[in-house]
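Form 12-C: Joint structure prediction
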Amino acid sequence: MQFPLKKTKNWRRIILEFIKAFIIGGLICVVGQILMDTTKLTPGRILVIFVTLGAVLGAFGIYDKLIDFAGAGATIPLPSFGNSLAKAAMDEVESSGFIGAFSGGIKGGAAGITASIFFGYIMAIIFNPKTKQ
Amino acid sequence: MVKEKKIIDSFEALTKEIEPKPKIIKNCIMAFLVGGAICEIGQVITYVLRNLDYSKEDISAITSVIMVFLGALLTAVGIYNKIANFAGAGTVVPITGFANAVVAPAIEFKKEGFVFGVAAKMFTIAGPVLVYGIGTSVIIGIIYYVINLF
Amino acid sequence: MTDNDTKRRGTQTIELKNPPKIISTFSVVGPKEGQGPLKQYFDKILDDDSCGKDSYEKAEREMMFTAIKEAIKGASLKETDINYLFSGDLLNQIISSSFAAREFSIPFFGLYGACSTMSESLSLAALMIDGGFAEYVVAATSSHFSSAERQFRFPLEYGSQRSQTAQWTVTGSGAMVLGKSGDFPEIRYVTTGLVKDYGFKDSNNMGAAMAPAAVDTIYKHFKDTGRTPRDYDMIATGDLGAVGKQITEKLLLEYGYDIRGNYIDCGDIIFNKEKQNTDSGGSGCGCSAVVSTGYLYKSLMKKEIKKVLLVSTGALMSTTSSLQGESIPGIAHAVSIEKD
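Section 2 - Result
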């Protein structure tokens, strides 16, 4: 009798997770859009602000709380990258002392950075620039 | 005789008045929908990996790699920039936007060769994100170290 | 300056006493321009804006080469008859013009006036003939959407959102051959512009940045020549776009000149804004080049209009100057083209 009950509880939780991811992810993008439309900030500068903000919030453990709440809605937008970098630096300082401040950060972003370099190169081999119409 | 100073003042007033205002509401709605959708794709990937019992660190790394790959592929086939034109921040803010910023110059500057074109120009747009992100993490690490001395 | 032999009028204008004739023109445009409202006026519409070449830069110089070659052919002349070639483009070190000129054996003056290059090259070519220094001169210019984007803005695949004031660089090249005689439209006045900068910095709104230069040159032209807007059937600026056009009209009203009745902007008319998604219109050296060599020249030849004032407009900034916090200076050159 317990099995079906457990399943419904799970499904509700899962659907809620997906809804939260969509909404929080969308809202973070809306913040970016408002900055793009109302200030003279270019997208490049806005991303710099986002990644730095993510790192600072990560240092205080605040961004992780957002990740617990919204899942991919918080991990996919760029502030999450800053969060990963900051957390990794702090972790490395814990284990290796001062030098961890330098050797740790990049480790947190390793997968994303390396993937973009690697796939960037592969795509450049396979594809050609297309004209816009 | 009209003085040029008066014309300059009029010009400044006119540029503010005539410049079409961005359609903020429409842009925000599109950014919300597309940004949310991209995050949703990430959520699906995370969910699948969780059910396959990967560790938290692995899930994070694998999801990043898959999202970067998707952003790279959509950029290379010319779809990502079409979506970006109406989605604005919805395509810029997610990590797929980072991939787009790396892959776009990589493909574009192929004409200048694979060393000084593709490889050298790959980070012309995304570079600042790395510099400021990693730079901030160093400062945070140092502050963290100093705080833990007490 | 009251000497009757002088050709100078006022502060910036020259009245050509031996008005050179535009004996032949040729325009080459890309596919997008070839689908626009002026498509029937262009001489050659490309199917593919890469011209079969492996880079956009090479495609651009191929377009310019074709425009110059066909214009010379259309004048029933040979390359050796041409005494000077004046041309320019948007690319760094004007490689489209230099490399196109490499294929000809014509003494070459390379010019940079950004998008004002069509009327700049036309001005200088006209002065050469009027001054008796040449029999035949070619004035040409070009621009290419993709080569301009990758130099000034972003890679084509980059996902950026275009602002409503943004303009679409025209893929096109136009060439004009000037001679001394024949029943052709002639150039009577050349008004050379000053660099004008009213402190405008937004490089997504070039039209507004260039408007002060257009206003100043048009005003000086009327003041120097004593003419009024009604003396012309058409006053055509290069690429101020919808926004810059409005600003220009309003500022000229303050100077006492009402051009609203007969004023067009080449960038505004070359594309269909709604169907082709071009925001504020076309831009680039090629814009005023193909509109003047195509639409304006053919309308003059068909006697649909008699007097045109061509005012190509350019923004004289670089990505470096903008990043260093500079505003955007503009320049505009006016050339009157008339056929009674």
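Section 3 - Comments
The longest helix of chain C spans residues 206-225. Chain C is about 35% helix and 20% strand.
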